[in-house]
Amino acid sequence: MKTSRRWKALGGALLVAAGLLAVYSVTAERPPVLQAAGGPSSTTMAPTAVAVSQAPQAMNLEPLAARFEDATRQEFERVNAGAERGDVRAQRRLAELYEKCFSVNVRRASYLEGIESMAGQHSDPDAGQQMRLIGQRVFAQCGGVDGGQFIPLDAMLLWREQAARGGDLASQLWLRRQRSVTSPLTAEEYAGLAAQVSASGDATAMAYLGDLAVTAGGLKAPDVDPHISGLAWQIAACQQGRACAAGSELMDVMCFSLGACTETDATVVLRLMAADRQAALDAEIARILSRVDKMRQHTR
Asked: Any residues with CB less than 8 A from the CB of 189 and at least 6 apart, and which?
């Protein structure tokens, strides 16, 4: 099917780009939705991922820019303080915020012009308008990350490394992804990482392992198709609490990287990357979730 081939090819490009900057990094919590009367709802870890309306073409985000920026500023200040105290989850989230806003804050003067150019070239006018709105929201949110200042590349890497040293499995996987070109993933290592991720129950770690599997390239393992297994880990991560709905950081990246701006959930896009192998994908998702559940019961 022509459409499925297109999405599979684009999916590979997305996963490579996401692995390089991890701008799709998310927390385990769902993003808050903009309430009709009172602005963003609160959340424990991710108040910046405010979902857009089901009818985004009718929503003007400009008056809400200050709210988006302020929510992100509050989160940034909170996680920055936590990171300085040695909280590994805060260190991971601080790195994620830096990664999300690196490409925005490095060129804030022209960022929205770039978004407008991409949106104008989109074949679907509704998706193009959605891209504009998402771009406005992300631009406003990133104004709250260190005051919208330029983000040094070292800042992202150092906090990732700090979190990894502190035992954060997701950050360890993120760093392993950066080494995958020069140090290919082996079947034995993949099996060991899968066991660790299953035991952790960390939805972000599940997603990162999925990205690592898909982009591993030469991974050869009995009864393991890296592409299917990688997509299954990412879909399973969504089912285990990863933020995957419209308004999530993952969906923002899928919009900018793939043009998938009107989908309601990332699992729809992930499934299209294996459109002709749904049975195999479902079987792998079920296997992963069963393993995670058994590990969770064993550790209680």
From this structure: none
Return the structure tokens found at 143.
């104004």
**What global pTM score does this model have?**
0.78
Which region holds residue 77: left if phi is over 0, alpha if psi is between -120 and 50, else beta?
Answer: alpha
Say how far apart CA 293 and CA 284 lie, in whole Å: 14
Q: How far is CA 124 from CA 120, 208, 249, 259, 262, in A?
A: 9, 30, 21, 9, 10
Find all residues with CB under 8 Å of 60, minimum gap 6, and list them. Answer: none
Cite the beta strand spans of the chain per DSSP E.
Answer: 34-35, 39-40
Q: What angle do CA 176, 107, 90 make, to 5 degrees?
A: 40
d(CA 224, CA 216) in angstroms, rounded, equals 12
As averages over each run of 10 residues, the pLDDT of the chain (300 residues) reads 42 38 32 26 31 41 84 98 97 97 94 95 95 96 96 93 97 93 87 94 96 77 80 96 96 95 95 94 96 80
Instruction: Specify which residues 210 forms β-bridges with.
Output: none
